[in-house]
Fold this protein.
Amino acid sequence: MAKPGAELAKFLRMKRQLLQPEMLLLDTQQQATADLLLRADVATAVGVPLADYERLENGADTPPSEQVLGALIDVLDLTDDEAAELGRIIAIMGAGTGATVHPQLMALLDSWELTPAFICDHRLTVLSSNPIARALSPMFDGGTNIVRAMYLDANTYRMIRNAAAVEGVVTAWAKKLTAGERDASWTRTLSEISQQRPQFRDVWESDVHPAGKGDLLLDHPAAGKLDLYYSRFLIEDCDDQFLVTIHADGIPTQCGLRLLKDFVSRHNPSAPW
């Protein structure tokens, strides 16, 4: 699987070149000159030095800022789906740097063999998660925005038996944590969800309390019915992150989590347990 930096580079080069498809009719020397000029034009329009933009197209591991992301979406004339894909790639880059989550906290998550756990930022994008959480649901994969996955990933949504209750909690937290935020990419994400799932707008506009604990009832394709209980914890000296742990409620669910752990162990020998 390509690294996120390489994936971003490929995406940017493809979309930039589509801005002037007539360049393909030029000879090799003319193409090289036109390509350099177009890169310079895009860098100027985005508002970054040419060298910084070229680092992105060369596969740099450092993700661009939210301001640059918004400018890239506008300059490259991306559709809503393309903008969402670009945001996904950049979110994974941010989650994969390892710099945003304390290494000891990541090690703690990995030590919990039967306790799914993950760390989110204030937009509910997963920054780090342990293997059992990733086996529980792709919603908890690094770089995944839980709000977006909850509403737009049909497989994720169908798996949640108490979907209405979870929708209310997820949306209420997103609303509270990002109140007053004017970031273009986040606004675009909310707009996309509202257009495709009108009930999101209804929940957003209602006065739902963002509970810090509650039930998560799943019908898992591999482990069957799982009755789980989640808890949210603040992280000291880190206001823009929080920890969520998910516990089994009853022996049948404990057995189901053990099945998932065994599955991860068989298919991922490098898992930390």
